[in-house]
Amino acid sequence: MQELQGEDTGNLEVNDMANTRSPAVAGGFYPSDPEELREMILGYCDAAAKEKRSVSGRLRGIIVPHAGYIYSGPVAAYAYDLLRSMKRKPKRIIIIGPSHYAAFPGLAESGYDAWSTPLGDTKVFSIGSHTVMDFPGAHEPEHSLEVQVPFLQVALGEDFEMDPILTGEIGPRSGAEALSSAVEDALLVVSSDLSHYMPYPDAIAKDKQTLEILKSMDADRFALEGDACGRTGIAIAIALAKKMKWKTQLLKYANSGDTAGPKSGVVGYAALAITEGK
Fold first, then answer.
1. Do the beta carbons of residue 217 and residue 170 sit within 8 Å?
2. How far is Cα 21 from Cα 188, in angstroms, rounded to an integer?
3. Domain 33-276 - what CATH class?
4. For the segment 67-106, what is each residue's pLDDT rounded down to a tens digit?
């Protein structure tokens, strides 16, 4: 499977920034050719749009998978199509996701001024929380945040900036507290797959249990029992949503056996919306 492979900058132009993160998984998890990449994302979003998923209230965040695009892209598109159709698009995005390569306490920003993808460069800001550290080394090989950036670039255009944050060992409420002031004027993107490499019917049953725990808005239980590689990020989102009186809504569930892989051992994917108000 492809998952196994492959501050304010004033008038400074993004392309002039020396401190720019280069893509680590372009050509593996997603196409390195800009035209092919854009067409792939638009195709997924157009297909999702045909099912006319809608949410009530103000969109405050999304939960999306992070495998290779041929596997999880069709599911992630259900959430990104919501962003694409927003009349007032968010200018700031906070992305949180798991670190697959480094272990550390707390939350880790990338320390870069910009991130590059085949579709261009996106400026990076910092939420400025004393509980968040800079850890570029953890970000350099990591795919969980990177694969969200081309989707954001297509859905939002060029007029946004982002803070990519990796989750380490941290409790849901501590993580929510670190992000709570920053999400007042930013949209939250949580990157996570669900169960890994179970037979197709077992994965569906396991993922159903995980999504039921998420629906219950019990962050501590999800942190302990949720079967998801990014369960820390999801647990933080649940704690944050509960604090802010937000809700979650499932947009789409599928697994790699439904999209582009065999059914003998699948990876589960879900796209959810986090909303405020009725």
1. no
2. 21
3. alpha beta
4. 999 999 999 999 999 999 999 999 999 999 999 999 999 9
| Contact between 122 and 9 (Cβ < 8 Å) | no
The secondary structure of 124-169 as a DSSP string is B-----TTEEE-HHHHTT--TTTTHHHHHHHHHTTS-EEEEEEE-B
Strands 266-276, 58-64: pairing is antiparallel
Q: Copy the structure tokens of residue 7.
A: 């501050």
Q: What residues have CB less than 8 Å from 132, skipping those under 6 apart?
A: 106, 107, 108, 109, 126, 165, 178
One-letter amino acid at 170 equals I
- Are 161 and 153 within 8 A, CB to CB? no
Distances (CA, A) of 5 to 26, 67, 68, 243: 11, 10, 9, 38
Q: Note the pLDDT tens digit of each residue in 192-208.
A: 999 999 999 999 999 99
Token pair of 251, please? 């947009």
Distance of CA 161 to the CA centre of its chain: 15
Quote the CA–CA distance of 141 and 23 in Å, as a whole number. Answer: 9
Q: What is the distance of C-alpha 243 from the center of its chain?
A: 20
Q: What is the pTM of this model?
A: 0.93
Our separate counts of H helices and E strands in the chain read: 9, 12
Quick check: 15 and 133 in contact, CB under 8 A? no
CA proximity to 272, closest of 84, 60, 89: 60
CA distance 78 to 67: 15
| Distance of alpha carbon 137 from alpha carbon 148, whole angstroms | 19
Contact status, residue 194 vs residue 207, Cβ threshold 8 Å: yes
